Amino acid sequence: MFTTLIVTVAQPLLGLRGTVKAAITSLIILFIGCALVFLHLTKTGRVYFLDFKIYAIYLPSITNSITISVDYLSSAFMFLVVAIGLAATVYSRVYLYGDPQTPDFIVKLLWFVFSMLLLVISKNIITLYLS
């Protein structure tokens, strides 16, 4: 509800349509979510781990694991990455107004923000390679 209010207010100012509207809306939701995670982790001091085991089909004895960890420091960096990504997206939308390649650029910028988020929360070399 809060993000729809922000997008409704920002739409006449920025001329948001289609892909750009979805990108900015998702970054606003990520920004609020990262802020809430950061506040939750500062109050509780917990660390959350998510571990995926990947088994080879032909060699079941070989396993790899993808580990994702969210703690106080990584949540602070997630908040920072999303804030900078949101500012860059809004600025580039205004700066590139009228350019037909703007939605493609915004999508590439959004993919970069997501890869940086994965880079921040990854804890092993396989996840770093995937990001």
The global form is flat
Question: pLDDT under 50 segments (min length 5)?
Answer: none
Helical fraction equals 55-70%
Terminal CA distance reads 31 Å
Radius of gyration: 18 Å
Oligomerization state = single chain
Mean pLDDT figure: 76
What is this entry, summarized?
The chain has 131 residues and is an alpha+beta fold.
Describe this structure in words.
A two-stranded antiparallel sheet has the order 1-2. With 131 residues, it is an alpha+beta fold. It is 69% helix and 12% strand. The model has no long low-confidence stretch (mean pLDDT 76).
Features:
two-stranded antiparallel ribbon; 12% strand; 131 residues
Write the layout of secondary structure elements.
Blueprint: H1 2-14, H2 18-44, E1 48-55, E2 63-70, H3 72-95, H4 102-121, H5 125-130
Antiparallel strand pairs: 1-2
Helix pairs in contact: 1-2, 2-3, 2-4, 3-4
